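Limitations
The structure tokens in this dataset are predictions for the assembled complex, not deposited experimental models. Users should treat interface geometry with appropriate caution, especially where small molecules or nucleic acid strands are included. An illustrative entry is reproduced here so readers can see what is and is not provided.
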Amino acid sequence: MPAGTAPPSGMRDFLPEDVRRREYVIGIIKRVYERYGFEPLETPAAENLETLLGKYGDEEKLIFKILRRGEHEATGQADLALRYDLTVPLARVVAQYQAKLPRPFKRYQIQPVWRADRPGRGRFREFYQCDVDSLGSTSPVVEAELCGAVADAMTELGFSDFVIRLNHRQLLTAMLDSRGVKPNEHMATLVTLDKLDKVGREGVEKELEARGRSRDAIEALMELFAPPQPSAATISKAMEGLRNAYAPSPASVVRDALKGLLDAVPHGQSAIANLKEIVTLAEQTKAKGRITFDRSLARGLSYYTGAIMELNVDGIGSLGGGGRYDNLIGMFSGQQIPACGFSLGLERILVVMTERGMFPPSLATSPADVMVATFDAAGAGPAMRIADQLRQSGLRVMVYPDPDRIGKQIKYADGRGIPFVAILGEDEIRAGRVTIKNLADRTQQTYEQSEAGAAIREALQQRG
RNA sequence: GUGGGUGUAGCUCAGGGGUAGAGCGCCUGACUGUGGCUCAGGAAGUCGCGGGUUCGAUCCCCGUCACCCCCCCCA
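Predicted assembly:
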């Protein structure tokens, strides 16, 4: 086996069938985002290295760096890097074009990003993100609308079991402060607590112990982050018919949970008020009944400053996430512009949709409606002429290029799912006619060449 | 980065110290202007790579690489 024909690890080739599926999903997401007034944006694959550094926290080791070129290449130094996400490039763009862009500015962006991660199920080194962001407003309307747009897109894609988990960075900070966790230990502690939904309470306690936390400190943290679930009955009622592990909660349940937290963490007051507003507003959107408050949701990126969100379905990691990042743009321009966004992971969505068979059958389309078959080289000219004629009547037409045995040509068309073959032999050419063979019902009929297009269109319509 | 598993034909995989197998796919013909079925034939593999043991290794041993799963992290 000749080695080295596989694409780089964690990166994929997309064969025609793959591209159709991807474009189907991207098309739906775009259409939904456009409905909310988001505008398209694209940025280069690479950014100056300094643009990316210092924005992500300790995930920076996963950035794909690009060596300096030419005579400087030997230094092994990098000056560029492939973009790690779409949010930091957006912040750069907004800082760069402040005068040109409206405020608020709403944009969506669907492009690949690169991470030097170890590939795994639903995890790639090159993958597409579908970002929506609103810049220039601190209103909770922004968060609520983003949740609504994401829920709308998921629903249009056919998902019925997704949940948007919600939390707040400032609330997390207040919670950790209240239990005596030092600010420089916040991130590491949060990363551990974030695993509550995956490894459970025991797993988290073990990991905290391994990180050197005292038994008392762990108790205090768990009491706050993983309290016994008094409302479990309410929740299970609310999620009747849903089989996912993440339970959406009615807005009232979310508000009750937040009220309870306020007593324990008075310093989280403004964050809690903010979350309540978001949840209440989101009730008026497609996110209604999809949102749940999750006090252990942390998210790794360090640029978040306010509300944080994560989109989940059962069986795979998150399908997307986002949050508010009011200070990021200021890192580029000096002028603080508040911002909030949400990112959908296209590949994860595709993995789940493929497993669940969520693509419409019409996606398995053929490359053409008609294939023109000929018997000898002399037929090539007439074949191309009639192909052109058929295209003008709105059909997708390909010409089989070689005068292979006719059976082989028909077999090719059949194998590609092309429903009709236009047979153009000596007899037909002489008579100015063409034989149209319907592969599905094995019938064929000879037409005047000028009438063939209409006949095929009609037959196609009847097939649906 | 950790633990486990797998590397044999284009694909899915079987086998086994003595020059390599199946199914599917592909090509040719039966059928010189008609596909899905059938039949006959054919092409195609330094058995992941390097070393060791052996008269002889694809098989046993050591190393190495790649891929898959778990942990980890994320989209």
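Some entries come with short summary sentences. For this one: Confidence is low (pLDDT under 50) at residues 230-244 of chain A.
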